[in-house]
Amino acid sequence: MIYVVTPGDTVDTIADAYGISAASIVNDNQIPYPYPLAIGQSLYLSVPGTSASFSYSAESTGYAYPFIRQEVLSATLPFLDGLFIFSYGFTTEGHLIPPVPDDSFMISSAISAGVAPVLTLTPIDENGQFSNFLITQMINSPSAVETLYAELLVTLEAKEFSSVDVDFEYILPEDREAFAFFVAGLREYLFPYGYSVSVALAPKTSDGQKGLLYEGKDYALLGEAADRVLLMTYEWGYTYGPPMAVAPINKVLEVVEYAITRIPPEKIRLGIPNYGYDFTLPYEKGISKARTLGNAEATALAIAQGVPILFDEVAMSPYFNYEENGITHQVWFEDVRSYYEKFRLLPEYGLSGIGVWQLMRFFKAGWLLFQEVFEENNEGNSLL
User: Pseudo-torsion of CA 21, 24, 27, 28, nearest 10°?
Assistant: First the structure.
């Protein structure tokens, strides 16, 4: 169950009230000694007889960079069906570029844990930015496309990947159909060898939505072209934007309700953010820059500042304010309450699972919640 801390609560009083051990509360919620709590903090409690199972099968996947700490990876793998390794690049001629540092330890760790390793393909240039120039040059060159298909197959077989995820961003509007054709061609090329293809989609709410993130992504065409899609339902609150929830449920719902009109829902994974932002107030466009922090880190910050955690009932997301060195801060993050609101969309809309961005920080309570609500019916690995 999910418990929200009230004034006077301690780990011991909560444990006594629900007949569970204080150690389970501490471990499940990553509470450091001497086990302080914040008013308004939500806790995952493993209370016998209170399972929130949805009686629904759901896949759990997530992205990680090759510089992930081994202890974080090892802690996360037991909760995953697929590990998306971010990322492989390519040249304008279609030659595949492996990630740095080497990802071999991630692949071997995943396979040992029974988790499917997934090669994530991105058009990231030498400056670490998504490049629509790279996209245009490659997808409009038949020879480059064939080279990339062939090198992907060699790498999939040599490194024991299970599938490919195509994460292209800032696609030019005029490349919309060519990109969908590229994804469909890759799926057709890899299918005889037993590999599937997924594609990441910016969070659209209509066919004609304007903006470079959206115009090059045709939901209907890509939903037909790929085996799975990921809705990137996060980043409403972002580094250079005004303070707000990263994934407000009202905005997430708009995307899901549009997506299922264009893509079979059983092909859709819902994007889940594993982070929050520490914004400064007042917000100044072009000047303000938020700090990224993990969900457990955000709760620890509220405790350290001695401030209560509030909950926005529209966004269904936690937040808090604090003052430091004369500067006002507002922190938006995710907790088990906000995760539950997102998880319940899977059975409600018939979605296939979740894709977490990203796994570099371990949020144990969120994973335990997912495991509990879907554990009895989780088949996993259906298209990984």
Answer: -140
Residue 380: its pLDDT value, please? 52
Q: CA nearest 75: which of 297, 334, 371?
A: 371
* 151 classed as catalytic: no
pTM beyond 0.85: yes
Instruction: Give which of 366, 258, 245 is closest to 315, Cα–Cα.
Output: 245
Contact 40, 313 (CB under 8 A): no
Does residue 150 sit in the same domain as residue 18?
A: no
Q: What is the DSSP letter of 175?
A: G
Q: Which of 93, 126, 169, 174 is catalytic?
A: 169
Q: Region 140-160: what's the mean pLDDT?
A: 98
Compute the distance between CA of residue 218 and CA of residue 180 in angstroms, rounded to an integer.
8
Structure tokens, 49? 């007889």
Quick check: is 305 in a domain? Answer: no
Whether residue 233 sits in one domain with residue 85: yes
Distance between CA atoms of 85 and 107, rounded to whole angstroms?
Answer: 8
Q: Is the peptide bond before 137 cis (omega within 30 degrees of 0)?
A: no
CATH number at residue 83: 3.20.20.80
Can you tell me the distance from the alpha carbon of 38 to that of 332, in angstroms, rounded to the nearest whole number? 15
pLDDT > 70? residue 382: no
